[in-house]
Amino acid sequence: MIKYIFKRLMMLVPTIFGVVTIVFFMMVFAPGDPARMMLGERVSQEAVEKVRAELGLDKPVHVQYWLYLKRIVRLDFGKSIKTGQKVIDEIKARYPCTLELSFVAIILSTVFGILAGVISATKQYSAIDYATMAGALVGVSMPVFWLGLVLIMIFSIGFGILPTGGRINIRYFFEPITNFFIIDGFIYLFKNGDPKYLLSSIKHLILPSIALGTIPLAIIARVTRSSMLEVLRQDYIRTARAKGISENKVIFKHALKNALLPVITVVGLQFGTLLAGALLTETIFALPGIGRWVYQALNARDYPAVQGGVLIISTTFVFINLVVDILYAVVNPKIKL
Amino acid sequence: MKKITRILMVMLLLSAILFSIGCSNKAAEPAQAGGEKKGGVLVFGRSGDSTGLDPARETDGESYMVCDNVYETLVQFKAGTTEIEPGLAESWNISEDGLEYTFNLRKGVKFHDGTDFKADAVVFSLERQFKQDHPYYKMGPWKYWGAMDMDNIVKEVVAVDDNTAKIVLKRPEAPFIANLAMNFAAIVSPSAVEKYGEDFPQNPVGTGPFKFVQWLKDDSITIDRFEEYWGEKPYLDRVIFRAIPDATARYLALKAGEVDLIDYPSPDDIDEIKADENLKIITQAGLNVGYLSFNNERKPFDNKLVRQALNYAINKEDIIKGVYGEFGAPAKNPIPPTMWAYNDNIKAYPYDPAKAKELLKEAGYPDGFKTTFWYMPVSRPYMVNAAKAAEIMQAQFAAIGVKTDLVTYEWGTYLDKTDNGEHDMCFLGWTGDNGDPDNFLHMLLSIAAAQKPAMNNAFWKNEEYNALVEEAKKVSDVAKRKELYFKAQEIFHEEAPWAPIAHSIVVAPMKKNVMDFVLYPTSKRVFHKVWIKKD
Q1: Mutation test of the interface with chain A: which of B216, B254, B376, B431, choosing the one with the most A Cβ atoms within 10 A?
Q2: How far apart are the C-alpha atoms of B469 and A32, rounded to whole Å?
Q3: How far is B484 from chain A (nearest CA, A)?
Q4: Any idea what the Cα angle at residue B227 is, between residues B534 and B125, rounded to 5°?
């Protein structure tokens, strides 16, 4: 097992190198001059040239690439062109928000997705099955920004029970510690026994995580269903039933465990997609996450910020895949590299 | 089995808890105490986060609107106008030759870090932007200093004594005083810049009515009343600038009562906002103009009659209706109506295709002509949807026999090409900086500005006009300047180097109980005098 994990870790090196390289060339070949973007409508050519020199854009591409690699190895993503702040600090300020949101969304969608899939599979061709799968189809096809606004309309404006956006009640004047607001909420709860921060931050996560989690939920439900159906047809399930084991035990202990393999893969992939795809949810719910930040940086041709942001997201994605692979090996001992 | 039931139970319980959290725990407002107007927290829902809070370094509105409340300038804009009034300087004198500006500084003014405001702070704040050997020069780029051509205007800044600062100019420049009301000329605390260094933009310290408290990136910036403020203290205890990027979500946050005031609502939501009895709307013409520039160096636009004909051919009402909705007003002059030099006597070219055809015939183009029509690829305040506006105008020009091919490029390329005169006619626009007419009339239409890469994208070189705007730069008497600019606008109108299209209108929806919030033409968002009416 340890050998397997080690091998997988070694494989990360070329993968991350690939990511680093692609990110660099993506920005080099993107249209538009960042210096011009920075300076706006009316500036002298001189000023543009000066900024280009400051950014190192006047050097040949291979030199830029080499300098870039040297910096990345030291985890130095440079400074944001727009704010002049270190890119790594900008990421630290925003990534926890996205991670927290994606994490809650993936947990919700995994739990409810598997549940829905299992129910559908065991009641194949029943009304419940049709309803769940129709729901899943609607879920995959629903645009996030639309769903987000509808949720706000219903729960914030209609019932007035949930906030329209943000991470915490803005009038509380919250001082973050870890920048993971739920964790911070717990810290404040234990420190001074006041649960309001924790409750408020949970409350603020409900609608965004539903909006963000709907598509993965639908996908997970569908994969679970088809995988379960396949497993339920296996001989050993029939044997188990013949032995008189209760139906629930057959389904959850014998069938589900084996049916979970493709589900784990999908959950891993979806988690990665959530990290990068939280942009729309972050925009609608005014969440200060990394998706929004990278998008703005892209629009402003803020090269260092885009590179740093994309690298961090991709690296997380690569690590999630590693975890998935390891989980795979844990669930199914037959898997060896 | 038992395990599964237990898991299910836990999940049910969890969702029940989540739901009950949702239902209970209504947002608690801090208590408001004392005074009729005093107290309260105002949350301002705006479209994005600030870039930084060093007033001289930043160039974006979202940064300025926080700086507007934290810093002060020597002179300032009178609320809601482009007129200049005393700020940190109680009064000032301009020498006979227009080269020396002496400012008598207000006494007893403190920075938020407790240090005293003195003339050396004026010297520090300005010198760091142009003296290359200044220890904090490298904290730039000081883009606005450059953009306002200050390098060629300011010779030196001197502290005569603690309460007197003098700025010596290289050339007489009347609009200079208006420049000093802009954000880049705001006075920063030297000791805070020394303390924070490169992190100063994250830890702003000024003399303004509010002091900076907290910044959660992309989320919110909080400022509190500065109790030692020299002037009338603000009513509000606290102002929170909250970033809500989606326009509809911003409006919903206002409707839900989470914010008190919002910026840039979506045109689609305006009717609903107007109908809501808990909300009100205030509007003001923006300090900008969107225009169609004719390349006077190219045929047939070198002919005045052709330029006039095209002005007659445009139905601005259609463009306003189709593109701007509530957010635009037709333009007739190159400067917006909020400016003190706006010549309202000028009669706009009416929509008259017959007259346009007649003029074309007179100019020697009885069957019209074929040309290119450039429009920008991005949305700007003065031109929200250039592609759509271009399509409308294309049809209007076709009606008088002028056939146009629509052309566009990536924004940076577009600016480069139009600056170098590669276009026949192009959409462009300008948002004013200092509220001075010079900032439009000289910046965009003078002969000096027609040198490539040019700001005068019409490449219109009119000696008579030019003499007027050059003269207006040199005299500091406002009445005299106004006269010169009035005359200049008449020439502009007759010669028609552009077709001015529209000025944007700024709209601010807010709760009914938000009182005395005033929109500034220069886009400032000032909360000094704002108060919240208690029920």
Answers
A1: B216
A2: 35
A3: 25
A4: 125
Residue whose entry in the numeric block shows the structure tokens 């497993």: A231
- Is residue A48 within 8 A of residue A41, CB to CB? The reply is no
SS3 B157: strand
**pLDDT interval class at B23 (50, 70, 90):** very low
The token pair that represents A321 in the structure block? 């895949």
State residue B33's pLDDT score.
42
Distance CA A148, CA A167 (A): 15
> Which of A94, A171, A289 is closest, CB to CB, to B30?
A171
Which of A37, A51, A170 lies closest to B43 in CB terms?
A170
- Tell me the average pLDDT across B271-292: 92
Tell me whether residues B48 and A296 touch, CB distance under 8 A. Answer: yes
Percent of chain B at pLDDT > 70 equals: 93
Residue in B306, B297, B349, B338 with CA at minimum distance from that of residue B461: B297
> A-chain residues within 8 Å CB-CB of B137?
none
CA–CA distance, B531 with B514 (Å, rounded to integer): 6
CA nearest A19: which of A258, A313, A242, A277?
A313
Residue B500, SS3 per DSSP:
strand
Q: Which has the closest alpha carbon to B337: B261, B293, B284, B299?
A: B284
**pTM of the predicted model, to two decimals?**
0.84
Mean pLDDT of chain A: 87
Residues of chain A with Cβ-Cβ distance to B410 below 8 Å are 31-32
Task: Render pLDDT for A69-93 as a digit per residue (tens, 0 to 9).
Answer: 888 888 888 888 788 888 999 999 9
Instruction: Give me the half-sphere count of Cα atoms (radius 13 Å) on the Cβ side of residue A225.
Output: 23
Strand, coil or helix: what is A36?
Answer: helix
CA distance B88 to B77: 12
Q: How confident is the model at residue A185 (pLDDT cuts 50, 70, 90)?
A: very high
A289 CA: distance to closest CA in chain B (Å): 8
Q: Is residue A328 scored above 60 in pLDDT?
A: yes
DSSP conformation letters of B493-510: HHH-SEEEEEEEEEEEEE
Distance of residue B92 Cα from the nearest chain A Cα, in angstroms: 31
Measure the CA–CA gap between B202 and B215, rounded to whole angstroms. Answer: 8
| pLDDT over 70 (residue B13) | no
- Are B143 and A252 in contact (CB < 8 Å)? no
- Residue A86, chain B, CB below 8 Å: the answer is no
- Across the interface, of B59, B141, B243, the residue whose CB is closest to A286 is B243
The 10s digit of each residue's pLDDT in B290-304 is: 999 999 999 899 999
| A244 touching chain B per CB within 8 A | no
Which helix (H) or strand (E) element contains residue A51? helix A45-54
Q: How far is CA A161 from CA A64, A220, A272, B138, B511, in A?
A: 52, 29, 31, 50, 20
Q: Residue B147 and residue A43: Cβ atoms within 8 Å?
A: yes
Gap between the Cα atoms of A274 and A287, Å rounded = 14
With CA atoms as reference, report the closest residue to A225 among A132, A142, A141.
Answer: A132
Q: How many CB atoms lie within 10 A of CB A209?
A: 24
- Per-residue pLDDT at B202: 93
Does the distance separating the beta carbons of A199 and B453 come in below 8 Å? no
| Token digits of residue A120 | 């559908």
pLDDT in tens, B174-200: 999 999 999 999 999 999 999 999 899
Site from A41, A245, A303 to mutate, B interface, most B CB atoms within 10 angstroms: A41
Residues in a beta bridge with B499: B292
Q: Which of A32, A166, A246 lies closest to B1 in CB terms?
A: A246
Locus of tokens 């000791």: B191
Are B219 and A153 within 8 A, CB to CB?
no
- Among partner residues B22, B243, B412, which is closest to A162 by beta-carbon distance? B22
DSSP 8-state symbol, B102:
E
pLDDT at residue B385 greater than cutoff 80: yes
